[in-house]
Every structure is written in C-alpha cells, then in structure tokens.
C-alpha cells in the first residue's frame, strides 16, 4: 500500500466522518423534541440527562473522528 493510497483512504474517511457528524448534529437540532420523546418512552431517563447524553455522544464521536481519520490524513499530507 502506497502513501498516496493511504492518503486517499484517510481523506475519504475524514469526509464521511465529518458528513455523518454534521448530519447527526443537524438531525438532533432539527427534530430534538421528537427524538427526546422516543427515547423517554424507551428508557426511563430524564430530559436533561438525555440532552447531556446527546451532547456527550456528539463530542466523543468528534474526538474519535479527529483521532482516527483527520489527524492521520493531515500527517500523511505533510509527508
């Protein structure tokens, strides 16, 4: 596997991760009350705890996307 192939792979992986993160964030912002209602019926969790869980999940996904796709892409581009 060449450096160019790895760079292309990590570049597309970064694009897909950023697109999914953006879509998930916009979906949570756009239909937040609907999603809250579904999750409150499924699990006996308070609304503030659910909002915190959504925020935590988005933050953890953002960190994982940076560590596993964006940083390797930038490092390979700098080589």
TrEMBL record:
Question: What's in the keyword line of the UniProt record?
Answer: Membrane, Transmembrane, Transmembrane helix
Q: Which domain of life is it from?
A: Bacteria
Annotated DUF6868 domain ranges read 1-79
Pfam families per UniProt:
DUF6868 (PF21742)
TM spans, by residue? 12-31, 52-76
Q: What is this protein called?
A: DUF6868 domain-containing protein
Lineage of this protein's species? Answer: Bacteria, Pseudomonadati, Pseudomonadota, Alphaproteobacteria, Rhodobacterales
